[in-house]
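Our consortium's second objective concerns turning raw sequence data into structural hypotheses that experimental partners can test. To show how far this objective has progressed, the report includes one record in full. It was chosen at random from the queue rather than selected for favorable results. The single chain below, 162 residues long, was entered without modification.
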Amino acid sequence: MEGDKPTTIVCTVLAIDHTSLCYRVCSVCERTLPDNDLTSLCKFCNFNTFNPASSSPSKRLFRVLMSIASDTKVLRVICFDRAAKVLFGCSADDFFDFAKLHPFAAVSANRILEGEMFRMTLSKPKNGNAQHLRVVSVVPLRSGFQPAIESLRELYGKRVGC
């Protein structure tokens, strides 16, 4: 990529790291929360993220590490929530709940999306410590493209919706 200007490419999804597709955030300030501490206050806004009486509990957002191939190279990129929703067709919370009932849903989503072609806009990370290009936008190129959750519902049945 040249400079800091976003670049749009046509690419194919080679693989998705299905071991960690999402992370927890405070629903008020959207700062990252630890996955292993389910009873904490958000350290940034002091919101009780797990109060059942609360109308705004914590939520999950997508963070999908993937390998893509353009006509000239293979890249490892990271796809955050807004762009990942195009691929998955639901929120990270809904996908997480679906995957709790269907433990192989993340592996199956990888297989479903593998080989799909997209027009992706990529940008360099703003954080100097970040390692991967960011996916800013995703546009499916196949006219019959279905988000992963649609295929998963067909595969596992329609018992859980997103």
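The partners drew two points from this record. Strands lie at 7-16, 22-25, 59-69, 74-80, 117-123, 133-140. The chain has a mean pLDDT of 87. Both points have been shared with the crystallography group to help prioritize constructs.
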